[in-house]
Amino acid sequence: MSEARPRVQTEPVSELTTNRLSVYLRCLNVLDAAEVRTISSQALAEQFHLNAAQIRKDLAYFGEFGVRGIGYYVKELRRHLRQILGLDRGVRIGILGAGNLGLALADYPGFREDGFAIVALFDTLKDKIGRRSRGGVQIYDIRDFKKIGRREAIRIAVIAGPAGAAQAAMNTVAAAGVRAILNFSPGTFKAPRGTKLKSMDLTVSLESLSFFLVQGEADE
Amino acid sequence: MSEARPRVQTEPVSELTTNRLSVYLRCLNVLDAAEVRTISSQALAEQFHLNAAQIRKDLAYFGEFGVRGIGYYVKELRRHLRQILGLDRGVRIGILGAGNLGLALADYPGFREDGFAIVALFDTLKDKIGRRSRGGVQIYDIRDFKKIGRREAIRIAVIAGPAGAAQAAMNTVAAAGVRAILNFSPGTFKAPRGTKLKSMDLTVSLESLSFFLVQGEADE
After folding, report:
1. DSSP string, A53-98
2. Chain A residues closer than 8 Å to B4 by CB
3. Quick check: A185 pLDDT over 90?
4. Lower Cβ count inside 10 Å, N or C end of chain A?
């Protein structure tokens, strides 16, 4: 679209790659805050325990960002990565489920800094509808999702309700034309047609820690 | 230790591998619930969009689980994976921070099913200490972490408080001898000596969805 937007290639990019781009962006945020102006892929890899060849390969896919003998310009690469990830225009998010998890996510401070805006919460319970999260996010009736979703230009829906209500919530979201879903409900769900569904399974991280505890014991 | 426990090799296993083991376990749970008795790596890969060669490689690292011409016995492989991940004995968890996120995690239904038990919440606020989560998890004074941690045999600490309090909470945890930390606070933290720190950055998943939305637009 705009001249500055890097070309988006037609081959699909794996989720592992986009996750790594997010990690690189996180590193560049740290470097930029520390007023580092340029960094080589080697130094980036060493400082953040990454793989230099992988960094070069991942970034080369989206264009020529490195400068021979200098490396990457931190501010410029950061700006490019934010464009590639679609963060430069801000991404508006609605959360379905205004329980503890939904309210915690609505006020999560990390989101705002990264270009995400939580613009609405939705619930089915009468005593929640019309109230606000501590941070000021309004709770709407889930039956108004389509109307509010359009008005607030919601592009990602977060499912934070009970597991039993998750599939219905996803269908509501898809019917309203929202095409990306981040799901926190445990269980296996079917992505509605035309939507991208990403599930956060919190147990995966705990299992990884549990594994390291077992490993540690074997070493003792 | 016990005869059935698979050998744990001395080379370090990457976090990507343990994450994949968690995913395989999740798939086997689904198959077991559907009363599937055996499955080949090929069928497992097709059904859950995984890579068959990667499955065989990951599992071969921990022993000989596959049977030629049959594949894997679902129940048996599930039991082995739970052992490898240290879930067979149950893993006891304490959560530091009894705000919305801490309370949501304490009552998250997915944990219990997978062998994790949330046994205590901790906070610094007087009006929270002594109360319980909706699911019945007691909230203790964070100053009693060491005492309660020992009594409740806490092995993993989850940091769910405000970012400003996270480093102090991690140090409290490490001083009490708890060696694994799952952190939800945004920011960059230093793992205390002798502990394994895993941070959940919720923005990574949102960025991945944002990227797919940008990609989608390019296709239209």
Report:
1. HHHHHHHHTT----BTTTBEEHHHHHHHHHHHTT-TT-EEEEEE--
2. none
3. no
4. C
Nearest to A110 among B19, B91, B203 (CB): B203
d(C-alpha A106, C-alpha A104), whole Å: 6
B197 CA: distance to closest CA in chain A (Å): 8
| E-only strand ranges, B99-208 | 116-123, 139-141, 156-159, 180-183, 196-199
Task: Write out chain A residues lying below 8 Å of B19, CB-based.
Answer: 204, 208
Share of chain B above pLDDT 90, in %: 53
CB contact under 8 Å between B8 and A214, yes or no, is: yes
Q: What is the pLDDT of residue A12?
A: 61
pLDDT digits (tens, 9 = 90+) for B32-81: 989 999 999 999 998 877 889 999 999 998 888 889 889 999 999 999 99
Long-range contacts made by residues B112-118, C-beta under 8 angstroms, separation at least 24? B113/A186, B114/A203, B114/A206, B114/A207, B114/B87, B115/B82, B115/B87, B115/B88, B115/B90, B115/B91, B116/A203, B116/A206, B116/B87, B116/B90, B116/B91, B117/B90, B117/B91, B117/B92, B117/B93, B118/B93, B118/B94
ipTM confidence score: 0.80
Set of chain A residues whose Cβ sits within 8 Å of the Cβ of B27: none
Which phi and psi (to 5°) does residue B30 adopt? -65, -45
Strand partners, A140: A122
For the entire predicted model, the pTM comes to 0.75
Q: Which of B22, B206, B214, B220 to mutate to test the interface with A (most CBs of A within 10 A)?
A: B206
Question: Rounded CA gap, A128 and A106, in Å?
Answer: 14
Q: What confidence score (pLDDT) does residue A202 get?
A: 79
Instruction: Tell me the sheet residues that pair with A142.
Output: none
What are the CA-CA distances from residue B60 to residues A28, B31, B56, B63 (Å)? 38, 20, 6, 5
